[in-house]
Amino acid sequence: MALDNTPKRVFKVVGTRPPRPDGIDKVTGRALYGADVSAPGMLTAHILRSPHAHAEIVSIDTSAAEALSGVKAVVTAKDFAPQDDDFLMDVLDNCMARDKVLYDGHAVVAVAATNSAIAKAALKLIKVTYKALPHVTDVDAAMTLDAPVVQEGRSLETVPEGMSQNVTSHCEFGHGDLDAGFQKADVVVERSFTTAATHQGYIEPHACLASMTADGKADLWCCTQGQYNVRDLCSAALGMEGSQLRVTASEIGGGFGGKTTVFIEPVALALSRKAGRPVKIVMSRDEVFRATGPTVSSSIDVKIGMTRDGRITAGEAHLRYSGGAFPCGTVDMGAQAAFAAYDLQAVRTLGYNALTNRPKEAAYRAPGAPQAIYAVESVVDELCQQLGLDPLEVRLKNAARKGTRSSYGPTFEDIGLVATLEAAKAHPHYSAPLAEGQGRGLSAGFWFNFGGNTCVTLNVNTDGTVGVTEGNPDIGGSRAAISQMAAEELGIPYDKIRTIIADTSALGHNDVTDGSRVTFSVGLATIKAAQDAIAKMCSRAAQIWGIDEEAVVWKDGAAEPAGPNAGKFPPMSLAEIAAVSFNTGGPIAGHHEFNADGAGVSFGVHLVDVEVDKETGATKVLRYTVFQDAGKAVHPSYVEGQMQGGAVQGIGWALNEEYIYGEDGRLQNPGFLDYRVPVASDLPPIETVILEIPNPGHPYGVRGVGETPIVPPLAALSNAVSRAIGTRMSSLPMSPPRILKALSKG
Amino acid sequence: MRFAQPRTTEEAAGLIAQEAGLTRILSGGTDVMVQLKSGLVEPDLIVDIKHIPGLRAITPEDGGFRIGAAVSGAELGEHEGVRALWPGVVEGVELIGSTQVQGRATMAGNLCNGSPAADAVPGLVAANAIARIMGPDGERDCPVAEIPVGPGKTTLAKAEFLTSIFLPARPDRSGDAYLRFIPRTEMDIAVAAAAVSLTLDAAGTVTAARVALGAVAPTIRLVPAAADAILGAKLDDAAIAALMEACSAACNPIDDKRGTIEFRTQVAGVLAKRAALIAYSRAGGTV
Amino acid sequence: MVAVTIWGSLRRFTDGKSPVDVDATNFKELLDRLSEEYPGLKPQIERGVSLALDGRIYREAWFTKIGPDSEVILMPYMAGG
Amino acid sequence: MKSIHVSTTVNGDAVEFICAPDESLLDVLRNRLGLTGAKEGCGTGDCGACSVTLNGRLVCSCLVLGAEAEGADVGTIEGLANGDALHQLQQSFIDHAALQCGICTPGILVAAKALLEKNPDPTDTEVRYWLAGNLCRCTGYDKIIHAVQDAAQKMRSA
Lengths: 746, 287, 81, 158
Prior knowledge:
heterotetramer; B: Enolase-like, domain 1; four-stranded antiparallel beta sheet; 25% strand; D: Ubiquitin-like (UB roll); DNA polymerase, domain 1; 2 domains
C-alpha cells in the first residue's frame, strides 16, 4: 500500500481540540443510549438466572409463567439454532444455558410480558430443577487433576497430555537459550503473582430493543461496540439471513471491550419472534456483574536474571489464566505481551487457559496484557531494588527499540518506548522528593493495537458540507477525531463535517470498536475516502475548465489547475464544485473499504507516588503521571482522556477491584457498593505527557491510544506500595487487609 | 402494595397496627428502596412519615437537641447547633453514602436498618442518645444502644417506629469523634468503626467516657472496658495502648467481602485511638 | 522460499522446527503450504492466525505479498478491547 | 397494586402522572414522562447517574418513590439549559472534554450545579468529595474537576 508518509507535515485541524459533535446531546440528556428508546406495543423482558455455580439442568417448567396474564413469550436455549462453529456455540450457550449452568448468574429462561412487574412475577413461577455439581472458581485449583471438570472435551490439540480437562489451550513464545541467560546473571529473582478478575465497569448496563415481524425481518437497537458483529452473531443464533436483521448501535455508555459480544440481544430477538411484538431488555447492575464480561483471573510465575550493571540476561514467565466457563485465548496475548518492553537475548513465556465456574471472559482494554506485564514489571523492580539500581535507567538500558526482535517474534518498527522513558526521566515528577512512608512506582506498558475491516463513505453535499458515514460506535470521542481527519484531508473547516455511525444496512462491514483500532483504521479509511472524493472533484473541475484531469491538483480545499494550466483558472472550492455537481455528473461521494494493517504497537510509562497508612493498610495515590506515544494525537484532549481513564481503571484494579467468590461459588459483590471502582475523591490529578513518534503505517502517523494506558498502573502501584512498606506485594488487588497482612509478616 | 402519607404519629401508628402484612417505614428511603429493588422484601404497606409535623425538625431541648426521625443527613449537617454540641455524631451521619444519599438518608433510618456497620449509630451510642418510639400504646423512650440486637434486627415491636432521637446536653470540656475505615475514600460500608465521647476535668484528665465500635460484631457495641482504659488518664501512651487492647478484645467480627477478622480486630483499635485523640482535642485537651 | 517462525506450542507439529521453510509469495499460499506440509497446524490455522511481516501484523489479508527476505512470523489471531 | 395519581413540578412545569406505589421516581421520569436524561446505572444509589434535585436537594431518583414527588419540585438534566442557551457547566464540560461516553454526564452536571449553588468557590478536594457518588468510568475524573472549576470561575465572575 502506497502511503503518503509525511509525518512532518503541518496540520491545520489534526492536533487541535474542537468541540465534539455529540457534546450538546450528551450534556443536555438528549443522547439516546441502549435503554432510552421504546416502541409501540413494546414488551419488557427479564431473565431467570442460575443460583448455582455449576449444576445440571434436570427440567424447566414454565407452564405457570406462561399462564400468567400479560406474559407473551418465554424462551430457553431450545429456541436458538444449534451452531457448528464452537466459538458461536459458546457465545450462545453463554446467552442461555443449554444442559448445564456453568456459573452463578448464567441465564436459563427469559420471559417477555406487558410490563416489567409481570415479567418479574412470571420468573418466580418458573420451576427449574437443578442437580448441583461440584464447582471450581480458582484458576490454580481448576488445573489440578482432581478438580471438577467444567466442560469436557474442550482441550485444544496444543494442550500437553496429562493435564486437567479444564486446561483448554496452551501457548509458548520466545527465543534464545534461557539456561545460558540465567547463568550469566548476577541475581535471579523468581516470584509468583495472582490477579483477581475485574469488570469493565461501564456505567450503562446492557440494553436492547428488538422487533421482529412475521415476515422474518428484524430491527435491533442496542448498546454495543460493534453492530455488525451483533448482526452476525444474532442472525446465526436465530437462523436468519444477515440482510434481514438491521442492527443500530445506540450511544454507548462505556464498553472497554465488554460490549464486543452479545448477551441479551439474541434473547430479545427470540422473544420478539415468539410474541410478535417489540421486546426490550435492560440488564440490572447485578446481572451485569454476574453474567457479563469480567477479565481473566490469573496466576503467574516470573523468573528474571540480571547482571550487576542492570542488563537483563533472561526472562521467563508461566501464565495461568482463567477466562471463566468457556475456552478463552486471552492468555496468548498475555504471553506475547509480557516481555514486549525489553530487548532480550533469551526469553520464554508459557501460557495456559483453564475453565472455572465463572462468567465467560469478555475483552477488557488490552486483554491479557495488564496481568502479564504486572508480574514482569514487579520482578524487574525487585531486581532493581536488590541491585541498588535506578528502575528507569534499567528499563532504558534494556528497552526494546527499532530493530529489536520482540519477545513475541516480530522485529519492531519505529516505536516510542525509549522516548517515553526519556520523557519520564526528564519530568519533575521523577526527581520530586518523597516523604517517609511514601513510595514511587514505575512501570512500562505495551499493547499491540489492531487495524481490521473498515468501510467509510464520505458524501459531499451540494451546499459544500460533508457527511462522513462510518460504522464504529464512538466510545471515546472518535467522531470528533474522524471529522478532524476528513477536514484535514479535504481542506475544509471542521464544522463543515458531520460524522455519523451507520446501522448495519447502511454501510458495509466494520469490525468492532476494539484493539484501539478506530481512530487509526476508520481515520485511515476516511482519509482514503476523502482522497477518492477529491479525485472526483478534481475530475469535475477539469471538465468544467476543459482541461485534462491529471492537470488538476487539490490544495487548501479547492481544485487548482496545475502543470501547463497553472494559473489559467481561479481555484474552484469544494463548495463551488459541489454546488454544480448535478450538472457535472451527479452527486459526489468518496468511499473506501479495506482490511487495515500497520496499526503500530504502543508503549506507555506510568509514574506514581503513594502513601500507605501502616496502621490500616490504606493506600493513598498522591501523584500520577502518564507518558505515552500517540503517534500523532488527532484530538489531544481525547488522547489525554484515554490516558487518564485507562490509568484510573488500572488504579482500581491494583487497589480495590475484584470478583469475590464465596465457598458456594457465588459472586459475593455484584454491585458498585462492594465492587469498588475508583471514585473522584480517591484520586489525584492524572497528569499526561503525549509523545508523538509517528506510526509509519498511517499518513498522519496516528497510533491507537485506548488500551495501553490500563497496562502499566498495576505494576506501577504495586512497585510504589512495595517500596513504601518495604515488603514486596505479589497479589492484586492490594486491598487494605492484604497490605496490613503483608506488613505484619514483614 | 399500598403507599400512605399520614399527617400525625397517631395516624401512622394506626395504619401500621391495622396492616396484617409487612410494613416498611419510609423516611429517607435509602435502605427501603434498595430492598424493594432487590425483590428480597415485598412490603404490603409503605408509610412515608416525612409529612408528619415535627418529624423533619431539629428542636433544642434541655440543653440538647431532639432530631426528628425524617431529618436528612444533609439537613443535620447544616445545623450549626448540633454540629457544635455533638460533632462526632454529625460526622458519623454525614459519612452515610454519597452527597445524593445525604439528601435523603436519616439517622433514625440508619439505626432502624439494624446494620452492624451503620455509620450513625456508634456516635449515638457513645453519646448515650435516647430514641423516642411511637407505637399502638403511645410513645416510649429507649436508649439507642438498646435498639439493635443483630444484623437487620431491632428491639422495636412490629407496630412501632421511631419519631425522634434526643441528643442530651453535655458538660463543658466534652468532645466526641467518629472514625470508620473503608477501602475507598467514599461510598463504602464501614469495615471497622469507632466512636469516642469523653469529658475532661480542668487538668485534662478524662472524667467520663463512652466508646462504641461498629462493624466488628453482630451489633454496634458499647465497650465499657475501653472507656475504663482512658478514665482518669490524659490519653498518655499507656492509656491509649490499653484503649486499643480493650477495643480489639471486644471485637467479634466476621470474615467477609469487606474485611477479615484479623483486619477488623486490629483496625478497630487503631480507629478508637485516633477517634479518642480527636475527641480529646475537641474537649480542649492537649496530648 | 520463505522462512516462517512458528510459535513454541505449535513446534511439536513441525517436528520441533522453527523457522520452517515454505514456498509462498503471499499469506494465503503460506497458510495453504503450512497446512499441507504440517497437517498438525491445520486446526490452529483454521481457528485463526495472524502474520507478522517485517514487523507489521496482518490479521486476515490473503494476498499480502511476502518477499523471499521478509521476516515472517506466525502469531495467534488476536482481538482487543 | 393500585396506581397513585401524583401532581408535581418538573423543571418548573406542572406535571401529572400515575404510577405504581413501588415505582421509583427514576422509572417515572424515564418511562412515564419521557425524560430519559437521568440514567439507571445501578438502581441502588451507588453510581449517581440518576441524580436529580428534589425540592432543591440533590438525590438519587432511583432511591425516591414516584409517589413522593406529590407537591414537590423536581429538577432534571433536561431543565439545566435555558432553551438553546447551555448552562455554563454544560459549556465547560464540552470545552474541557469532560465527557467521553457521556452516560454519567447528566448526573454529574446536576450534582455539580447543586454544589456550585451551595459553594460557588469550592476547592478541588471539595469538588471530588461532592462528586464521589457519581461514578465515571471513562475519564478518570481529571477533566471533570477542571470543567467544574472552570464553570465555577466563570459563574463567579459573571
